[in-house]
C-alpha cells in the first residue's frame, strides 16, 4: 500500500531571500539532523544572469534501523538524489528527491516548495508532499514502512526548528537582510559607485544561489515539465499550519496530512460546499485517522444532512411547546476547559409522556437541534477562549430515574437517537458526567452501552449518590460558581424541571404515524436504487423549447453513468423493478425503467448530453437548455468497470472494486426542477440549484463547473 503525506502551508515571517540564506547552511551536512551524514554535488547549473540556479546532490543517510535488518539488507547507509531549482526572479525554490538505494524494492518521492506568501511579500511559505511505496523488502515490508514513517515524521517536526535555528545564527552574525535579485542590465554602476555595486553583486552571487541549493531534500527545475505549480495558496484552498494549531489543535504531521488529503478530496467531489475543517477532523478522529473509513461515514452523513435539511433546522424548525415545557435539558455556561456545558435532568423527565405526546421523530429532531446548537457554541467558544474547542460536556442528573424510564418504546426511541447522533456527530462529546446514578441505572446501561462507540464510552464518568461532591467529583471539571442549584450549587439553572406530561396531550398511534411521516418526508430529494442492467429513469415533459432542466444529485453508493435523452413520443407507463428481483426495500429502493427494450437509440430517442461518469461520494449539479419540446429522460445507469486493454484477464484492482459493490447495486439521491423559458434570465453559468448547499457545515468556497455546449455540469 502506498503511504502518502501532504503538509499544511507553513509560514515563515521572514523574506524569501533570508530564508534561503538560512537554508543553505544545512549543506553539505546538518548537525541538527543526525541521520544526514553528508552530501556531494553531482550536477550544477547557473544562468548567465544568476536568476536560475539548479543543483543536484547525492545525499548520504544513516537510517536508524535494527542492526539485523541492515545486515540482511547488506547496507550501512541509504543514498538519496535531490534536485533543488532556485528561481531568484520569481522568488521560488522547488525541491525534488528520490531514493537511489533499493529503488527496485522501495519507491520514495518527495516534493517541497518555498514561495513568497501571496498576501505579504516579506513572508515565505513552505509546503511539502511525499509518497512511500514498498514493493518488497526481504519479508520485512511492514517493519521498513514503520521505520520510514517514524523517521520521516520526526524530520518534518524538526524542519521549521532548523530554519529558525539558522535564522538566529544569521542574526547573531549581524545578517538580518539579504537583498533581492536584480537583473544586471537594470542596475548600471557609475564610476563612483562601482565598488558598492561589485560588493552587492558578490553578495547576491553567494547568498542566494547557495541558499537555493540547500532548501530541501527534493527539488524541481523550473524548466522541468513535471515541476509542481508554485504555491499560491490562500486560506480558502490551503491550510496554514498556524491556523491548524489555533483552530484545530496540535496534530501530528501524519494527522495534518490526513486532514489535508480528505479536504482536497471533498473539494474535488463536493465543489463549493465542503464541511468546515473542524467537522472533517471529527470524522477522522472517529476512525483513528483512517482516511478511507472516515470518508465513507462522512459521505453518508453529508447525504443524510442534505436529504433531511439538517443544516437549516435551527432557522426553520420551532420545537413544540410540549418540548419547551417538559424536556428537562438545556445549555448552561461552560466547563473548566471552555467546552459548552449541556445539562440534562433525565431522572425528572417523563420520557414515556414525551414519546406518547410527540412521537419518536419530534424527539429525534429536537436532539438534532441541540447538537447543531452545540456545534455553533463550540465555534463561539473557540474564538472567546483563543484555543480549539470542538466538543461539549454533558451533565446528566439521574435522580428520580426508575422503572418508568425503562418503558420499551422509550428505550427504543433513545437507542435510535443514539444511533443517529453517533453516525452524524462523531467526537462532539468531550465528557459525560453522570450524577446520582440509582440502582436501576445498571439495567439501563446494559441496554444502551452496546450502541455507544468505544471512544465515546471512555469519556463517561459515573457517580452514585453524592460521590460527585467528593474528591475527583464535579469540582474537578466545573467551576464552583456555575454548579447548578439543584446539585447544591450557587448558580440558578434555567433548565426546565420536567415533570409528568398531561395525558390530555397524548396522541393516538395513527396521529403520531401521520406526523412522523410528515416530519421526515419534508425533503425535496428522492432516493433511487440502480442495478446492473436496471437503470433508474425519470420522465420530464417539455412543452416550450428553451426551457431549462436542472438537477442536483449525490452518488451514495457505487459508480454510475448519468445520461439525458430526448424522445418525440412518450414512453410506456413507468415499469418499477420488482422488489423481489433485487431485494429492494421501500421507500429508499425506488427503481423505474422508462425506455422500452425495443426502442433504438437514434430512431426512437436521442442522446442530448455526453455521458457523465460519477464516482461514489460525488455531488453533481447541472442544467440543460432544451432545444425541442417533447419528452426528456434523465437516466442513472450502473457503471461497469472497463476491461483491461492490455490483457483479456481482469485486473486485480477491477475485481476488488467490483466486489465492493454488493449485488451490483448503486444508490443515488436526486432532485430535479424545470425552469420555464419565460422565467429564465441570465447566462447558463449563473444557473445553480438553490437546494444543494451544506450551509451550516460549509466553508465559504467558490463553486466551479464544467461547461458543455448546451449544459453545465459541476461536481
Automatic annotation (TrEMBL):
Compartmental location: Cytoplasm; Golgi apparatus
CRAL-TRIO domain span: 319-495
PRELI/MSF1 domain: residues covered: 3-175
Broad class of the protein's primary localization: cytoplasm
Name by which UniProt lists this protein: SEC14-like protein 1
Biological process terms in GO annotation: innate immune response; negative regulation of RIG-I signaling pathway
InterPro entries referenced in this protein's UniProt entry, alphabetically: CRAL-TRIO_dom, CRAL-TRIO_dom_sf, CRAL/TRIO_N_dom, CRAL/TRIO_N_dom_sf, GOLD_dom, GOLD_dom_sf, PRELI/MSF1_dom, SEC14/CRAL-TRIO_domain
Subunit structure: Interacts with RIGI (via tandem CARD domain); the interaction is direct. Interacts (via GOLD domain) with SLC18A3; the interaction is direct. Interacts with SLC5A7 (via GOLD domain); the interaction is direct.
Reported function: May play a role in innate immunity by inhibiting the antiviral RIG-I signaling pathway. In this pathway, functions as a negative regulator of RIGI, the cytoplasmic sensor of viral nucleic acids. Prevents the interaction of RIGI with MAVS/IPS1, an important step in signal propagation. May also regulate the SLC18A3 and SLC5A7 cholinergic transporters.
GO molecular function annotation: RIG-I binding
GO cellular component assignments: cytosol; Golgi apparatus
Gene: SEC14L1
Keywords: Cytoplasm, Golgi apparatus, Immunity, Innate immunity, Phosphoprotein, Signal transduction inhibitor
Entries under SUPFAM superfamilies matching the protein: CRAL/TRIO domain, CRAL/TRIO N-terminal domain, Supernatant protein factor (SPF), C-terminal domain
Domain of life according to the entry: Eukaryota
Organism the protein comes from: Piliocolobus tephrosceles
Amino acid at each position: 500500500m502506498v503511504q502518502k503525506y501532504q503538509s499544511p502551508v507553513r509560514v515563515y515571517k521572514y523574506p524569501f531571500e533570508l530564508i534561503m540564506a538560512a537554508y543553505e547552511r544545512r549543506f553539505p551536512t546538518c548537525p541538527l539532523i543526525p541521520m544526514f551524514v553528508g552530501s556531494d554535488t553531482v550536477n550544477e547549473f547557473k544562468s548567465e544572469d544568476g536568476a536560475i540556479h539548479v543543483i543536484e546532490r547525492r545525499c548520504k543517510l544513516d537510517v536508524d534501523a535494527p542492526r539485523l535488518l541492515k545486515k540482511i539488507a547488506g547496507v550501512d547507509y541509504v543514498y538519496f538524489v535531490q534536485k533543488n531549482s532556485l528561481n531568484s526572479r520569481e522568488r521560488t525554490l522547488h525541491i525534488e528527491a528520490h531514493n537511489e538505494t533499493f529503488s527496485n524494492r522501495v519507491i520514495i518521492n518527495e516534493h517541497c516548495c518555498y514561495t513568497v506568501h501571496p498576501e505579504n511579500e516579506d513572508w515565505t511559505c513552505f509546503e511539502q508532499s511525499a509518497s512511500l511505496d514498498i514493493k518488497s523488502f526481504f519479508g520485512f515490508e511492514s517493519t521498513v514502512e514503520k521505520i520510514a514513517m517514524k523517521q520521516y515524521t520526526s524530520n518534518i517536526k524538526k524542519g521549521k526548528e532548523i530554519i529558525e535555528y539558522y535564522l538566529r545564527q544569521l542574526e547573531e552574525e549581524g545578517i538580518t537582510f539579504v537583498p533581492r535579485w536584480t537583473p544586471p542590465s537594470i542596475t548600471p554602476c557609475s564610476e563612483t559607485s562601482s565598488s558598492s555595486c561589485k560588493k552587492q553583486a558578490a553578495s547576491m552571487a553567494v547568498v542566494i544561489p547557495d541558499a537555493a541549493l540547500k532548501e530541501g531534500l527534493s527539488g524541481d527545475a523550473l524548466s522541468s515539465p513535471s515541476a509542481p505549480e508554485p504555491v499560491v495558496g490562500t486560506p480558502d484552498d490551503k491550510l496554514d499550519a498556524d491556523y491548524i494549531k489555533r483552530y484545530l489543535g496540535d496534530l501530528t504531521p501524519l494527522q495534518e496530512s490526513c486532514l489535508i488529503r480528505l479536504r482536497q478530496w471533498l473539494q474535488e467531489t463536493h465543489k463549493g460546499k465542503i464541511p468546515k475543517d473542524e467537522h472533517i477532523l471529527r470524522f477522522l478522529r472517529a476512525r483513528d485517522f483512517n482516511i478511507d473509513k472516515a470518508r465513507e461515514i462522512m459521505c453518508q452523513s453529508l447525504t443524510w444532512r442534505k436529504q433531511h435539511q439538517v443544516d437549516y433546522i435551527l432557522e426553520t424548525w420551532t420545537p413544540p411547546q410540549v418540548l419547551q415545557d417538559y424536556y428537562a435539558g438545556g445549555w448552561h455556561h461552560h466547563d473548566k476547559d471552555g467546552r459548552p456545558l449541556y445539562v440534562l435532568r433525565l431522572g425528572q423527565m417523563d420520557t414515556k409522556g414525551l414519546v406518547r405526546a410527540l412521537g419518536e421523530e419530534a424527539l429525534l429532531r429536537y436532539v438534532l437541534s441541540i447538537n447543531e446548537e452545540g456545534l455553533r457554541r463550540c465555534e463561539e467558544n473557540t474564538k472567546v477562549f483563543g484555543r480549539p474547542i470542538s466538543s461539549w460536556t454533558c451533565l446528566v442528573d439521574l435522580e428520580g430515574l426508575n422503572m418508568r424510564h425503562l418503558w420499551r418504546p422509550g428505550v427504543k426511541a433513545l437507542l435510535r437517537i443514539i444511533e443517529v447522533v453517533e453516525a452524524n456527530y462523531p467526537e462532539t462529546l468531550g465528557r459525560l458526567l453522570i450524577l446520582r446514578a440509582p440502582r436501576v441505572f445498571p439495567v439501563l446501561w446494559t441496554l444502551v452501552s452496546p450502541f455507544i462507540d468505544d471512544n465515546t464510552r471512555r469519556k463517561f464518568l459515573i457517580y452514585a449518590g453524592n460521590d460527585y461532591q467528593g474528591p475527583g467529583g464535579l469540582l474537578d471539571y466545573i467551576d464552583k460558581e456555575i454548579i447548578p442549584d439543584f446539585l447544591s450549587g450557587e448558580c440558578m439553572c434555567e433548565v426546565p424541571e420536567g415533570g409528568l406530561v398531561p395525558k390530555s396531550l397524548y396522541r393516538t398511534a395513527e396521529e403520531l404515524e401521520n406526523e412522523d411521516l410528515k416530519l421526515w418526508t419534508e425533503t425535496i430529494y428522492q432516493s433511487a436504487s440502480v442495478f446492473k442492467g436496471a437503470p433508474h429513469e425519470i420522465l420530464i415533459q417539455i412543452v416550450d423549447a428553451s426551457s431549462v432542466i436542472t438537477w442536483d444529485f449525490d452518488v451514495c453508493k457505487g459508480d454510475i453513468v448519468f445520461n439525458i435523452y430526448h424522445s418525440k413520443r412518450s414512453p410506456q407507463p413507468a415499469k418499477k423493478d420488482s422488489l423481489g428481483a433485487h431485494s429492494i426495500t421501500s421507500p429508499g429502493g425506488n427503481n423505474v425503467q422508462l425506455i422500452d427494450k425495443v426502442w433504438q437509440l437514434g430512431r426512437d430517442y436521442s442522446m442530448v448530453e455526453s455521458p457523465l461518469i460519477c464516482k461514489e461520494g460525488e455531488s453533481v449539479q447541472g442544467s440543460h437548455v432544451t432545444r425541442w419540446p417533447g419528452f426528456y429522460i434523465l437516466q442513472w445507469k450502473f457503471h461497469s468497470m472497463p476491461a483491461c486493454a492490455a490483457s483479456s484477464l481482469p485486473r486485480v484492482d477491477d475485481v476488488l472494486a467490483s466486489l465492493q459493490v454488493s449485488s451490483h447495486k448503486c444508490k443515488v439521491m436526486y432532485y430535479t426542477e424545470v425552469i420555464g423559458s419565460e422565467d429564465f434570465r441570465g447566462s447558463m453559468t449563473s444557473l445553480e440549484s438553490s437546494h444543494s448547499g451544506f450551509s451550516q457545515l460549509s466553508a465559504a468556497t467558490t463553486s466551479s463547473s464544467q461547461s458543455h455546449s448546451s449544459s453545465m455540469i459541476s461536481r
